[in-house]
């Protein structure tokens, strides 16, 4: 059996959320350099990572308990999160550092029914440790060693 969305779980700061869907996108602005219009190497550019969680109301309410303890939703401090999935054939572990949550779609309801109410929670990666995939950091250590936290 292969890993699918059914196998992936999202852990944030010790809380396990069952997201209906979650994404993580990395933007890496590394680009090709050219001399006289001919490629002759590359330069590393800036990076960023962001994603979204789609939560049903039960899981959204778990998140809101975290917000209540923080005093407000925006009061939730950046935290480390992990998405993981495992089958007898494959394993995937994605660690994200310094996740800062926002709310994008609080209510998206259809009066016809037929589907559970969903809540969309976008997030940004804010920590220089950035993202690690199966224990391998996306950024080289020398890229982040001098960053003051």
Characterization of the model:
With 149 residues, this protein is mainly beta. The protein has a single domain, classed as Pnp Oxidase, Chain A (Roll), CATH 2.30.110. Helix content is 12%, strand content 48%. The protein is built from 2 helices and 12 strands. The chain has helices at residues 57-70, 141-144, and strands at 9-12, 15-17, 21-28, 31-35, 38-43, 47-56, 79-86, 91-101, 105-108, 118-125, 131-133, 136-137. The strands form 2 sheets. Strands 1, 2, 3, 6, 7, 8, 9, 10, 11 and 12 form a 10-stranded antiparallel sheet that branches. The longest helix is centred in the middle third of the chain and has 14 residues, at 57-70. It starts with 8 loop residues before the first strand and ends in a 5-residue tail after the last helix. The mean pLDDT is 91. It comes from Grimontia hollisae (Vibrio hollisae). This is Protein of uncharacterized function (DUF2597).
* Gap from first CA to last CA: 42 Å
Helical residues, percent: 10-25%
How would you sum up the major sheet?
Answer: 10 strands, antiparallel
Q: How many beta-strand segments?
A: 12
From the helix content, strand content and strand pairing, which structural class follows? Answer: mainly beta
Q: Could you say which overall geometry the principal axes of the C-alpha atoms support?
A: globular
Number of helices: 2
